[in-house]
Every structure is written in C-alpha cells, then in structure tokens.
Design brief:
Elements (H helix, E strand, L loop, with lengths): L4 E5 L5 H18 L6 H9 L5 E6 L2 E10 L3 E9 L8 H16 L2 E7 L4 H7 L3 E5 L3 E5 L4
Parallel strand pairs: 4-5
Antiparallel strand pairs: 1-2, 2-3, 3-4, 5-7, 6-7
Helix pairs in contact: 1-2
C-alpha cells in the first residue's frame, strides 16, 4: 500500500477539526488514566506548540494531526493522531517509518511519550522504540541514533 499522504501547516480554521479529532482519539485514554477531558483542557492540548501542527491529508482530505519538534540531535513526536475511521490501515506506521527514515539519514534519535493506557505503544515497540523512562501516566520512548 502506498497511500497518498500529504501534510499542510495547520491554521486557526483547523481548530474545530483538531478539537474533534483530539476528543475522538485521546479522550478515552485520558479518561482511563484519570486525566481531565474538559473542553478547556482539550483545547489547551490542541494549541500546545500549535506552530508545529501539520494536518495529515489522505487523498486531500484531513484525517489527522502530526506535530514534530526537530532539534540537531532528535526528532520528537509531540502529537500524532489519526481519525478512528482511518485507523488500522497502516497510516500511522507509514508516517512513523518516514520519520524514522529521516532521523536515520540525519543521525538523529526519535522520541515520544505515550499514555500507558494507549495501545499505540505496541506499534512504537514494533518500530524499534524502547522505553527510556516513565511517569505516573506515560512511558517515554525513543529510538537509537541513526
């Protein structure tokens, strides 16, 4: 499968889409972790480092969000969310594989955090991420330098 994935910078007209996406993809994990899911908190998570937000487009339709923080030695996946209606098709794996390839070419690590209640951690482990730390709610994971 070679999906037609593209990205575009998010802007203020995307906030309703991103708020809805976050509620659908993340609130169940926040609820099971005992974390707040009210609208104000959820909006704060959407707006966190908003300048790094990219809308994921599949066949020119918005299906998700990718926020990356690139530094000299690391690419941090701040947020990756794919609409539940398009999950299970290998899109997350494809996106992460592309990030891992970029990092490997540049000699960088890739890091992220995942809620302990989020089954996405299994995907991350299958792609070579290892747990390097944890707090009450999350695992901190990264890959080895490329």
């Amino acid at each position: 499968m070679n999906p037609d994935l593209h990205y575009r910078q998010a802007d203020e007209t995307d906030i309703d889409f991103l708020l809805d996406l976050r509620i659908k993809t993340m609130n169940p994990h926040y609820e099971s972790s005992g974390l707040s899911t009210d609208r104000e908190t959820t909006l704060g998570r959407v707006l966190y480092q908003f300048e790094k937000a990219n809308i994921i487009l599949l066949d020119n339709e918005p299906i998700g969000l990718l926020k990356l923080d690139r530094t000299f030695t690391n690419i941090e996946v701040l947020q990756l969310q794919i609409d539940p209606s398009t999950q299970g098709k290998g899109l997350g794996k494809k996106i992460l594989s592309d990030i891992l390839e970029e990092a490997s070419s540049a000699g960088k690590t890739v890091s992220l955090s995942v809620l302990k209640t989020n089954k996405a951690q299994h995907l991350y482990k299958s792609l070579g991420f290892t747990i390097t730390g944890e707090d009450e709610h999350s695992y901190f994971m990264e890959t080895e330098r490329g």
